[in-house]
């Protein structure tokens, strides 16, 4: 009898259809039966001895909720017997309903329930427990997982022991993942976690890889790739990484129509064993990144999500470095500017932040200049070594790509193009590969009817600026010594209000005092490993409404193991939309002291001065945009949630925190020992009448 080995994962959902991913113990027919009579089935396909199916279900009714079960060869295998969780459901959206998008990146699998979690409670585990405790309450419409869903190069103790029993650790790559079978172990460890398994069965998800899904600093440079290809174990590692990503993550990102048109998917399903077909595809993708597109688009009502591949699509020749190859860059532009007026929000998901602390940005552009030979061969060799040691590989390390993305965001948010080329109502970008959360917004200070609000936690100074007649700016800062809110109008200040409040809130047991050096100092006692709980509320950053421009342009990112909000502005250019970068990471990972101190210092005035000197040494041009941090940095296992209602957008940052008397295990969240605690809540656009 066939058994359910992994899943079900509810992946794609729209108003009338859904797809469900499963792994089974043997070849079989997988069927999904919904309580309202809708159903679908698919035969399993085989890869390297494992059996999978992606089951499409059509005929769903918009705006409804129904339970479902998974049946293998006529036997019901989901829900699990005696499950402590509520029944898994499919929720189909109504066309104009609000959309909740929860996002983050960088998740180590949580240890077994009887082990202490060395990095604190898992934010996704804790989210699952909260939803399970109140299944009719608020829940995301989609999870955006922005990279490092598994760590092929940093495995758990249990997985090291499993690898040692399988092949020993003396041969390269030692205690790292070596092949497809070992990749499947990572997914079992992560997705069989009871809370995660149930969460992914009942909340749709969109995923994109980052470096640790293959290896740290994957595709950092051409020299790095050459060195890796010279090792005897790398080819099997990268092919297995791409194959396992295609099976476990990429397929579920696609709509039923896209799946029906996917020639590789058809070829794998048509052969008794698709291993060779998929392996040849992975080899081609590694040799010629332009031969495959991992990026994709999803529309949720009037919200458009563009998930970008910022790893495999790179062009690495030093004289022509680019984060995206030319075809990928054209695709991004076409999707961002497609069907003007058909959506109100554009979210751009990129695992790597677009806007960094100014010192880090300047260091990366300086390093890129050294590596391409601006200061000679000796400096180029130094630059390559520094690039690898310091992970200098974000958008700033690809200056032409940074400029192209900046120009596209400005174009989409300006509202000054012709109707034919007008961008969506809100472009927004999401990126991971940071163990923190950041949010950045752009406003040139001239938009009428705009509101601006900023919230900062663990900072000494918080500034919020709002522009335009009839504009309101409200800011709240937690654990700050100074809270500043400024309202700036169109020269008249008519109808503009600015309110600022500072409050300090401490929670939790355990040590972990932090000192922040960013235009002052903020010290707080945290929960667990030095986590500080801040409360920032009422933040508003405005977008002109009714002007033909987007409401918001949001870039979502991760990777840097902290969270922050950044606001860009283009000197001399009028933008009608709210543009922000929202960075959130990690979901579940460690946050070294060096990251905490480095990213605090990176935003300081002294750091900015040092960055300018590096840029001058590298003969680097000034970036076409400037920006400032309007919230954060926040450190902890955390998630951000956007609620998009009409042309309004709100943001909430939550951290998974152990309460007094708790065990520190995310699995105890149902008992109230671990909770998602709101750190900051912000209104990103003016509220629109309902």
Please describe what this structure looks like.
This protein is of the alpha/beta class and 690 residues long. The chain is 26% helix and 29% strand. The strands form seven sheets. Strands 12-11-10-28-29-30-24 form a seven-stranded mixed β-sheet. Strands 13, 14, 15, 16, 25, 26 and 27 form a seven-stranded mixed β-sheet that branches. A hairpin with a 7-residue loop joins strand 22 (514-515) and strand 23 (523-524). Helix 11 crosses helix 12. The longest helix has 20 residues, at 234-253.
In short:
With 690 residues, the protein is an alpha/beta fold. 26% of the residues lie in helices and 29% in strands. The strands form 7 sheets. Strands 12-11-10-28-29-30-24 form a 7-stranded mixed sheet. Strands 13, 14, 15, 16, 25, 26 and 27 form a 7-stranded mixed sheet that branches.
């Amino acid at each position: 009898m066939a058994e359910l080995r992994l899943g079900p994962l509810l992946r794609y959902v729209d108003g009338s259809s859904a797809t469900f991913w499963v792994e089974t113990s043997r070849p079989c027919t997988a069927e999904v039966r919904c309580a309202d009579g809708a159903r679908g089935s698919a035969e399993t396909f085989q890869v390297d001895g494992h059996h999978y199916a992606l089951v499409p279900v059509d005929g769903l009714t918009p705006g409804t909720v129904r339970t479902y079960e998974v049946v293998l060869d006529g036997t019901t295998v989901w829900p699990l017997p005696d499950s402590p969780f509520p029944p898994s459901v499919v929720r189909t959206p109504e066309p104009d309903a609000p959309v909740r998008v929860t996002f983050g990146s960088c998740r180590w699998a949580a240890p077994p329930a009887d082990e202490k979690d060395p990095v604190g409670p898992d934010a996704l585990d804790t989210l699952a427990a909260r939803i399970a405790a109140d299944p009719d309450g608020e829940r995301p419409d989609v999870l955006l997982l922005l990279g490092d869903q598994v760590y092929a190069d940093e495995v758990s103790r249990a997985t090291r022991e499993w690898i040692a029993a399988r092949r020993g650790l003396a041969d390269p790559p030692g205690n790292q993942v070596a092949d497809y079978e070992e990749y499947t172990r990572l997914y079992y460890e992560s997705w069989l976690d009871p809370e995660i398994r149930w969460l992914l069965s009942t909340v749709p998800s969109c995923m994109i890889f980052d470096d640790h899904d293959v290896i740290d600093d994957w595709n950092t440079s051409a020299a790095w790739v050459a060195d890796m290809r010279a090792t005897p174990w790398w080819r099997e590692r990268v092919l297995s990484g791409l194959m396992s990503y295609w099976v476990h993550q990429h397929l579920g990102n696609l709509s039923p129509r896209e799946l029906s048109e996917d020639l590789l998917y058809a070829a794998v399903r048509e052969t008794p064993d698709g291993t060779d077909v998929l392996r040849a595809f992975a080899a081609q993708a590694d040799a010629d990144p332009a031969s495959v597109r991992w990026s994709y688009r999803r529309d949720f009502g009037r919200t458009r999500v563009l998930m970008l591949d910022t790893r495999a699509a790179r062009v690495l020749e030093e004289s022509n470095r680019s984060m995206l190859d030319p075809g990928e860059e054209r695709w991004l532009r076409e999707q961002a500017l497609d069907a003007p007026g058909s959506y109100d929000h554009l979210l751009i998901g990129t695992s790597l932040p677009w806007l960094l602390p100014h010192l880090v940005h300047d260091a990366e552009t300086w390093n890129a200049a050294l590596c391409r030979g601006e200061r000679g061969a000796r400096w180029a060799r130094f630059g390559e070594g520094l690039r690898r040691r310091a992970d200098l590989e974000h958008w700033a390390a690809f200056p032409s790509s940074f400029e192209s993305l900046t120009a596209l965001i400005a174009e989409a948010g300006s509202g000054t193009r012709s109707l034919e080329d007008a961008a969506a109502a809100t472009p927004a970008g999401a990126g991971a590969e940071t163990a923190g959360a950041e949010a950045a917004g752009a406003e040139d200070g001239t938009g009428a009817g705009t509101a601006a609000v900023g919230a900062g936690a663990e900072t000494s100074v918080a500034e919020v600026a709002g522009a335009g007649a009839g504009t309101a700016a409200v800011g709240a800062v937690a654990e700050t010594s100074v809270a500043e809110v400024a309202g700036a109008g169109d020269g008249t200040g008519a109808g503009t209000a600015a309110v600022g409040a500072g409050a300090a809130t401490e929670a939790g047991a355990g040590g972990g005092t932090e000192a922040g050096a960013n235009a002052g100092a903020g010290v707080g006692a945290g929960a667990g490993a030095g986590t500080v709980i801040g409360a920032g509320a009422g933040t508003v950053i405005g977008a002109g409404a009714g002007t033909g421009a987007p409401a918001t342009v949001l870039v979502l990112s991760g990777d840097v193991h902290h969270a922050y909000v950044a606001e860009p502005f283009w000197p001399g250019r009028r933008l009608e939309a709210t543009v922000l970068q929202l960075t959130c990471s990690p979901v579940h990972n460690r946050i070294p002291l060096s990251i905490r101190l480095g990213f605090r210092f990176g935003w300081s005035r002294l750091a900015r001065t040092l960055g300018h000197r590096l840029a001058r040494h590298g003969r680097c041009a000034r970036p076409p945009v400037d920006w400032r941090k309007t919230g954060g940095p926040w450190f902890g296992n955390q998630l951000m949630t956007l609620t998009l209602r009409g042309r309004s957008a709100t943001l909430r940052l939550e951290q998974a925190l152990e309460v007094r008397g708790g065990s520190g295990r995310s699995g105890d969240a149902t008992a109230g020992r671990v909770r998602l605690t709101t750190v900051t809540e912000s209104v990103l656009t003016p509220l629109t009448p309902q």
